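Retro notes - structure team

What went well: the batch runner handled both jobs without manual restarts.
What didn't: labels got mixed up in the shared folder, which is why I'm recording both outputs here explicitly, each with its sequence directly above its tokens.

Job 1
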Amino acid sequence: MRINLAKSAGFCFGVKRAIDIAQRLALLNKKVFMLGDIVHNEEVSQKLNRLGIRKIKRLGYGRGKILLIRAHGAGRDIFAKAQKRGYKIVDATCPMVKEIHRIAKKEDNKKRRVIIIGDSNHDEVLGIAGQLKTKALIIDPKRKIDVRKVKQIKKASVVVQSTQDMEKVERIRVILEKWVKDLKFFNTICKPTRIKQKEMKNLPRESDLVLIIGSKTSANTKRLYEIAKKINKNSYWISNEKEIKPEWFKGINSVGITAGASTPEETIKEVLEYLQEVR
């Protein structure tokens, strides 16, 4: 059985950077807190928890404590509240997400309505919306567009969640251009996402079966799975090697493998080792 591993499988730059920052902080200070997970991967979160970094639901008294801003970023209110309560803030927001923040704020200051194409409840999308003075219009590709709201907008600037599917975004763009006369579109899907999705257009065609490795909470992994499944029905989304079923491989001569941007290298290695035994 031939194994085809995508070149882009695993951590992207922004995730690796955030985890490196977190690990260095853990070695220097035992009072490090996060409002949620550093990235959407349970194994990474568990590892940081073992290092002493604590996940909290709300900000408490912060004197002598560090608040680590996660890779997905956070709204201005989080920064303001943390500073007011005495936290020292360490910002591990992905630089590419920071660039989306910069664009969105710049367009908001120009009195243009900011439209965000992305998963409505995703941390990154909420963080982008949280940079603005005027409420953003969030368009979720999974839901029907409320044309009534769109038609009321005279001039708008569009930014995109960094891990969105370009094909879905393009379909939304066409609809927006139809209803908003003055529309500026910023394609802020990040380069690592584009590379992963481009590879995923070919991998399912070159393989009898495809494994997409990543947490079920990972938006970018979900997108890779959706692309693969459309092309090859023998595509499976797994968190780790324990979720692989031996019966999948009956009559299979080649397996394509990729992994989401927040999937650790160790998890990918464990899947590869399992497949070495199966074949």
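Job 2
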Amino acid sequence: MSRLTYVNGKYHEYKDSLVHIEDRGYQFADGVYEVFGIINKKIVDYEGHINRLFRSLKEIRISSPINKSSYYFHIKKLIKINRIVDGLVYLQITRGVAERDFKFPVKTKPSLVMIAKSISKKTYEDNFNKGIKIKTIKDLRWKRVDIKTINLLAPVLAKQEAAEHSCQEAWLIDEDGFITEGSSSTAWILKKNILYTTPLSNSILNGITRQTLIKGLNKKKLKLIEKKFNMKDIKDADEAFITSATQYVMPVIRVDNLKIGNGKIGKYANLFRKAYMEAVKLS
């Protein structure tokens, strides 16, 4: 079956899905995006993601090209026509097509594209059961990381460096030596049965999976402290995790040369995943 996409109001074959050479997303990274996880044909955390999309649009002053309720319709249709059971839908909005000029164009319609992709549930389960490795890298991103823009060169370079060190993710370190977050995820450590993650600010993205896991932890009365942590804290950690829209809850077994716990996933990994899945009503 051919993959079908959505581009500016029409459905296309994947190979025919094109945008203009002067789209401002292509030339300036002038746009925002969201990733919607799909589990058993259901959209995970839809309200959180769509609300964050509209916040991002507002922050960089782009008008939505369609009304808010239409996004759900098109995402559901892409899931259906592409026969996605488990996977993701990537959604991107740019300021649109205009002659190249740094200033905002006076009259242009924002561009909207959506892509659906199947991801085997077994791939996630295999990674979860093994745990992943992390490489720490200096945080070189701009100062408004709370906006989910398509300006992703710094995370790309971080992810590539991690891959070159046989790691699956990078944790970014600020000028004071604290972990901000992952290149495409939220970072967590567990010490003495207390889970820690960086408090919200302009320096990190307000992860939707992060929000939902916190709700799940609160419901189960598991202790969480939003507090910055550094390499010393990581060295003393009993367990570590990342969360994201496609990794959900993923245990970390090594950070740089530091083995986390005994180097295998700990007892809290399944507990935290269960808390998250119950919070999104997918368990």
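One thing worth noting from job 2: Helices lie at 24-28, 46-59, 68-81, 121-130, 153-164, 208-219, 231-235, 268-279.
We'll revisit the folder naming next retro.
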